[in-house]
Amino acid sequence: MAVPGSGQATITWGAVTGATAYDVLRTTTTGTAYATVAASTSATTFTDTPLVNGTPYYYAIRSRNTAGVSPLSPDVSVTPTTGITGITISGTASYEDKLYDLYYGMTGKTAYKPVRYAELELINANGGASLLATATTATGYYSINATAYAGQTVYVRVISTAVPSGTQSVEVKDLAGTPALYAVASMNLTLSNNSAPAVNIAVPTSSAAGGAFNILDVYTSGFHFVNSLVSVPSPTLALTAYWQPGNTIGTWFCNIYDATDCPKGAGIYVLSDAAGMQDTDEFDDDVLWHEFGHFVLNDFSQDDSPGGTHYIDANDEDLRLSWSEGWGGFFPTAVKSWVVISGTTSLSADPNATPTSQYVDMYSTGDAAISINIASPESSLDPVTLTYYCDNTNNYCKYAANEVAVANVLWHLMSGPTTSFGMQPIWDAISTFPTATVTVAPVNLEAFWDQFKHLRGTSFTSEQADIEGYYGNRLINYREDAYEAGSGDDTPANAVPVSLPASTVRYLFKADGSADIDYVSFTGVAGTSYTVSTTAKDTLKNGADTTIRVIRETGMAPIVQNDNYDIASYENCDAMGNCPLNGDVYNYSTYPPQWESEAPLSSKVIFTAPASETYYVEIKTTPSPTRPLSAGRYGTYTLTITSP
């Protein structure tokens, strides 16, 4: 076959059994005076140039091997012409996505979705050279003017990298020695005069690249979501995701190189270990967006999380960890809500079965491993154990040290049910952490509260009751307790008298963000032993790090004090925060804030009253130089006073 071009001709022939090479011969008079224009080529196509437009040319082929050469083939005629115009290749690129529902995970149904804003290339089928590059649109459509390559045999391929906006980039690579992008190619086609072939590329789930294009699409939505919240999209925003079938690393976000956890450098590593851990995340959109949430904190905010193991029902996490993971749990629900409102693309979840507030994580089998409604966690049934994740009896999914509680607070600030703020004020608060005018170190839910309130300004007064209600529903009481009313209880003169035995729940919180001090008084009897403590574990799970001082009425001098239960003080720790405790050494800079009776948050004193008089108990938060980074400035505590 011979295909004309302007000043050229492309000749294509079928392979000959036993041939090791081919000669291409040409003449301008059929059957006579052939001249060799290509000798001993191993290809089965050849483009002859330059030629004279309007002149007929005749081509014949002969094959070669060690035995010699074959006779010439019958010749074919071709006439180059300047009339070669409008050779356009167009079509769509799509990938097959898996649909999932609320409780059961993957439904077995699939739907093809467009490969959006992805790089697409025109490739010379003989040698693999890239001829042209373009990008798909929001609908996966592309169009290439290939007139200059008339007569050549080519194919189109779509590549797992996209430009969501401007110079931003997201790419999905394998984990080979030098990680490579994924590419899926069309069938070969020969470009002929004035042709306009439709070339569609569809990537099925069975393809080795199938998961890569879902990851690419999920993170493209993540970029668009973030861009909708900023006044000027960041031109340098870039993300690399690493994935391949059988990958045992992840799923997590790394911002630096680590030989074990991040062997290819910064990016998101997507787990795909069906045989070992029986978990694959390439089609788990919520898991992918969760890690994108960490990427967002790293690039647009501040994330002080020490990392480590965390669980949905754990309410004794480091406050920095519960904030970071709570944000990660909330982030997919925010993206999905925006996708539905903006109509930017269809969701992989079945919209009739899964609300946007549902967080779903699946096993490699497609069965749901985690399915929890961030908006209403107490109603969420664990699909594996068929028990509820959260229950009021044990106060699971409550307190600032629980990631679901953090996610729930953020969801209600965004969506209501009473006052709703949308996503923009939440974004404004987290994105201004690095330059905040209020205290934000270390970053946790308290830091978010302070910055959110600061940015609301005078509007906060009318919104305060609803906001405090969203927090209070999770037993996070960032509000003054009843004892702060009027003259308050911040001095011995205003101490609240109690009768023994006493047990009272208090909030260590001042509306203006300043350090709170609470005073309680009781009448002591000379020679009687008293125990004063804040060791009730549940109420300490909002992270307040208490100290206790007992002060005598006579002279108002402290007779006993304590910072941490079971150790007199952790001010004697070394520079790294390592502190001795019961013969062991614990690092209180990263220590979980609630650790049974040995918590660095708890305080306890035992003393014998030297006289029958009034005693004052002072409770306050530890000054920041001695407070562990895992703890907070606000919170609740239960003060208990007993004799003995």
CATH H level, superfamily name of the largest domain: Immunoglobulins
Taken together, the total number of domains comes to 4
Radius of gyration: 35 Å
**Secondary-structure content class:** alpha+beta
Helix content: 10-25%
Number of helices: 7
* CATH classification class of the largest domain: Mainly Beta
Q: Roughly what is the average pLDDT, rounded to an integer?
A: 87
Approximately what portion of the residues adopt beta-strand conformation? 25-35%
Q: What characteristic shape results from the CA principal axes?
A: elongated
Distance, first to last CA: 104 Å
Number of strands: 36
Largest sheet features: 9 strands, mixed
Uncertain regions spanning at least 5 consecutive residues: 568-572, 593-598
Under the CATH scheme, the architecture of the largest domain is Sandwich
CATH names the topology of the largest domain as Immunoglobulin-like
Sum up the structure in keywords.
single chain; 644 residues; alpha+beta; Immunoglobulin-like; 4 domains; 9-stranded mixed beta sheet; 5-stranded antiparallel beta sheet; 36 strands; 16% helix; 30% strand
At a glance:
The chain contains 7 helices and 36 strands.
